[in-house]
Structures are given as structure tokens and as C-alpha cells.
Amino acid sequence: MTHQLVHTGQRLYACDLCKKTFIHKRTLKLHMVIHSGQRPYACNVCNKTFRQKGSLKNHQLVHSGQRPFACVVCKNTFSRKSHVITHQLVHSGQRPYSCDVCNKTFSQKSNLKQHHRVHTGQRPYACDLCKKTFIKKYSLKEHQRIHNGQGPFACDKCDKTFNQMGNLKSHQLLHTGQRPYACDVCKKTFSWKSDMQSYQLIHTGQCLFSCDVCNKTFNYKSNFKKHKLVHSA
Description:
Double Stranded RNA Binding Domain; 10 helices; globular
């Protein structure tokens, strides 16, 4: 009987706090833990806690190194099934999540949520040492390496070091000569995505950076920063 509700669309069980509805009573019970704040399942390696037993099991794959889910296209492996499903959107080109402000599209719902903060100005992740705030939790974690001395990440070609792995990877493109980012108008290529995006403004006529002293505009943040030194001298 309960299974047939899947086909009828009936959702008989409702949360009396947020009114969200469910087909199964057990799913409602799991949901109610969100409102109670309880996180009864703890990882025996790092003590991180979870609301659901299934979430704990998924998390423990991080410590075991197991990545049992593989992409059928590129064979990249993942610790969670949901991650491989999301990843495969990269190969299909699907970007089903669209920003209702600027219409930018994303393959992942989580990326859309993070992007929304660009418009709202929300920066919910704060460093507890210097109070600098970030849009993404990952960016905060990378920033905190500056304070706790983790890393640094060193280039194996020139020994230049970086606090963030992403910056190291971008730097290494200088040694390989790779320029993987191409302008879709004139096909000029770039080592860094940010440089390509800034360059494309030449074709649109947009200028992202404007001097609040003389109103001169710039496509590149680096040029804008250099220009500001003229006024501060």
C-alpha cells in the first residue's frame, strides 16, 4: 500500500514544524532530526557528527579511501553515488540550475546556491582569527592554512610555494605551456579562466573595474590595482 503512494503522488506524512510532506513515515522521522538539532551518529576517526546513519557511512569512505562509484565516461571515481551522478553532467553538458537574477547556469544545485551569494552579498564563512569572510566553505579552509601553517604547496619545477592547491595548479600551467581556456569569439587562449573572462569583456564593451577617483575603467583587476597607486602616490 505504501509503495503505491509513489505512483499516486500522495504524501500523507507532514512535518508539523515546516509542513514539508513525505510518502513514508520513516522519512518523516529522519527529517524531524533536522529540527531537533540532534546529530547522534559520530565518526570514530574524526568525531564529526551526523543526523543520519547513512550520512555517517558515506563520510567514513573519506577515511577508508574507498571510491566505489566510477564515471562511465572518464572513469573518475567518487566516494558517493550522488557525486558521480552530479559529475556526469559535465560530460552531458547539462546545466539544469539557472540563476533567477543573471540567468547563469550550473550543473550542480550547490554551485547555484553559492553563486546566489554574489548577488545577495552573503559571506557566511568567517575566519575565527582574522574575521575575513568567504562565500564558500572551501575558500575559508584554504585561507586558514595561512594562519595554521599547513602546506604550503610547492611547485616541483621551480619550488615556488602557494597556500592554496588551486593556485599551484594554475601556476603549473606556466611550465607546461597549456592554455586550456579559449575565448568563444576570437579563439584566443589563456592559462587562467579568470584572464579569459576578463579578456572577453573587450568584445562586449563591459568594464568591471572603475576608479572612484577619476572614473577610469579597466577590464583587468591587476591593471586597476596598479592604476590606484597613481592616486595614492
